[in-house]
Specification:
Chain lengths: 115, 115
């Protein structure tokens, strides 16, 4: 049960330093299911990245705000790049220097904010 | 008269393809005055870049929205990277593939949105 709705409705855990990173196999399974998401690696830190397209700047900024509300509710914050007609999201867990299962959940929830 | 207020209150011109780019000398003068701004160059396109710090995510997102309102009013849109406690702005003029004087004005106006 790894589809967008079930993953998005999983409760996010409080994440502490030392919490387990997801395995490469779990990342692979996620990317197979969520094929619009890409795996990035910067300075050895794995991240989930996706670009969303919009018809104009205002629509992009509205999505940024929806993601912002989600981020505040979960107290887990992505990098959000807003530009004309585009929002790029990067999710990772700063405290563990990589990807926690929460990041999968947040990516799935971000997708649901479009609908 | 190139201080923040006078530059910020200059009216932005409608910018078309073929409009003049600012000269290297003008860029140098701008950066001398607005020393928190940096000049970036990506794929041969010159851009103005600045990072603003905030106490938390909500304050950063609030600034992003103020910049967004400015951008919509001027119909000139920067790239806005929002993350926890930080907003990074990149201004340039897509149509001319570089920096127009409007970008100086928008950078100055962005600074005023902090106050």
């Amino acid at each position: 049960m790894n589809d967008v709705t079930s993953l998005a409705t999983e409760e996010c855990e409080a994440c502490k330093a030392g919490a387990p990173k997801v395995s490469d196999k779990e990342i692979e399974a996620f990317l197979l299911q969520f094929s619009d998401w890409q795996l990035l690696e910067k300075d050895g830190i794995k991240m989930l990245y996706k670009e969303y397209s919009f018809k104009d700047f205002a629509s992009a900024l509205a999505f940024t705000n929806r993601v912002g509300i989600l981020a505040e509710a979960l107290q887990h914050h992505p990098d959000i790049l807003t530009s004309w007609g585009k929002v790029a999201l990067t999710w990772y867990t700063h405290k563990i220097g990589g990807l926690h299962r929460n990041d999968f959940r947040c990516a799935a929830r971000s997708d649901l904010l479009l609908t």
